[in-house]
Design a protein that fits this description.
six-stranded antiparallel barrel; alpha+beta; 17% helix; single chain; 5 helices
């Protein structure tokens, strides 16, 4: 406890007085700060809070590597979701709210992640520097590649909004800039990093081409673009929670295939799957069981879809 006489009652507070208060003053500050974070955190449950209207924050200074038009094309999504209740199919789960990112692309459409708008009952879009939220709807969604296309019917939303262009597959150590609306603030956020790896990663039932970057990708960045110069090299998708500086973006090859199937079929039929699973033949006991010579290589087929594309080509074991 701090003696009442040691706490100044006037408007002046010297460094000597702060040192005298010591650990008690610091611990009080830490408790106050943690309480503020808990109160301001939106868990997405319950009734929406009643907030006083606040002025729209001024436009932030632009990133040196990006022109103004590129950042203006990145928008913020406000999504209300009601997932299905598989235990009680006659009713839905409790509504939740989330925020994420998207960007203008193509003929007056927005491109984002599928998990951002999956099971959505209401989607609102807000442009950078504008207070009004516009209603949006889902045109097509591909959960196997985590991509979705949105449409906004209000013509005023598209005034001065420039669609972004896609860039080709980047090289290792290429500099990338990720733009979006992550948690921690309401205005646009820009992070910078390099391409760390280009590899195959599981995405739903299939493994798809994925770009790993070390630029920060946080909750809310999903659906935002990753730039090289003024072109989009990928869409922010996820980050590895058990590691540091490992984020994943969806490259152009996956986006092009998704948009091409939508243009041809009017929906997304999905990515192909060969219909079998296998395991490596590295264990020498396993190789001896199947009489695999030491100089031979291969895999062991342990699951096969009978009516799949390779059902009559491959054999189990």
């Amino acid at each position: 406890p701090v003696p009442r006489s040691s706490v100044p009652t006037g408007g002046r507070f010297s460094v000597r007085t702060a040192v005298h208060l010591g650990v008690s003053f610091v611990s009080m500050s830490v408790v106050a700060a943690s309480s503020e974070l808990e109160e301001s955190e939106d868990l997405g449950t319950g009734e929406p809070p009643v907030l006083a209207s606040a002025p729209v924050p001024p436009l932030q200074p632009l990133a040196r590597d990006l022109p103004r038009e590129s950042l203006q094309s990145v928008v913020k999504l406000f999504v209300t979701k009601a997932p299905p209740n598989f235990a009680r199919p006659w009713q839905m789960m409790k509504q939740t709210r989330s925020t994420s990112s998207a960007f203008a692309f193509g003929e007056r459409t927005l491109l984002t992640n599928a998990h951002c708008v999956s099971d959505a009952t209401d989607i609102r879009v807000r442009r950078r520097g504008v207070s009004k939220k516009f209603a949006a709807r889902v045109l097509v969604i591909g959960k196997d590649c985590d991509l979705a296309v949105l449409a906004v019917d209000d013509e005023t939303f598209w005034d001065g909004l420039m669609p972004l262009e896609l860039a080709d597959l980047p090289h290792l150590q290429d500099t990338v800039v990720v733009a979006g609306y992550p948690t921690g603030g309401d205005n646009i956020s820009v992070t910078k990093g390099v391409v760390s790896r280009v590899d195959l990663r599981p995405c739903g039932p299939v493994e798809l081409l994925t770009i790993q970057i070390d630029a920060a990708i946080n909750p809310g960045n999903s659906g935002g673009p990753a730039f090289i110069n003024d072109k989009v090299v990928g869409i922010a998708r996820a980050h590895l929670a058990t590691a540091q500086n490992i984020g994943y973006i969806i490259p152009r090859q996956i986006i092009d295939h998704f948009l091409d199937t939508f243009a041809r079929h009017g929906h997304h039929p999905g990515f192909c799957n060969l219909g079998f699973s296998y395991q490596n033949m590295e264990n020498h006991h396993l190789r001896a069981r199947y009489k695999v010579p030491d100089d031979a290589t291969g895999v062991l087929v342990h699951r096969l879809a009978e009516h799949g594309p390779l059902g009559k080509v491959l054999q189990l074991g």
